[in-house]
């Protein structure tokens, strides 16, 4: 019989999960407003209603908390799916449109993502490998989704076209989020995202006349 460690037992306690969630929600707010460098564990602890030592008890270090804050946002996006993973084919692009609609209602989480992803390009930043891997995975999944759509239509989607379209969609989504954070009155995040995704996906299957 394999003995469970104290950490394993604690991880599944409802009260422990509730405290971890409170810390992550506080971290989203603190790091979203101040960034990973200026946002402190003390501020996270204060917002979560506990001590700095309490935060470290649950996450071990600021770096670990930062990584789990990034993952927390992604976990919210797929919480409604049975396998906790984004769908495939056309449903994946509908999911991205829905995500933009959700992001418009959760400004602090979106701000935290924009802030932490922007900071990740700095030398030695804890988020570098996370975001590099995240984009690599998402480009592959969007590319595969386009190929699934093509197969359903009896069309073979070129690999380079699929990857370029995927990279463009991800870049545009992140850029729209940044514009919306800066000026929410000028940019309708959900409408602009839906317009962009539909236009780029349509370009894959119905290139039509090149205007420029």
From TrEMBL:
Pfam hit, one: TetR_N
Q: Which SUPFAM superfamilies match?
A: Homeodomain-like, Tetracyclin repressor-like, C-terminal domain
Q: Which InterPro entries match?
A: Homeodomain-like_sf, HTH-type_TetR-like_transc_reg, HTH_TetR, Tet_transcr_reg_TetR-rel_C_sf
- What keywords were assigned to this record? DNA-binding
Q: Name one GO molecular function term.
A: transcription cis-regulatory region binding
Q: Does the keyword Transferase apply?
A: no
DNA-binding region spans which residues? 40-59
What is the name of the protein in this document? Answer: TetR family transcriptional regulator
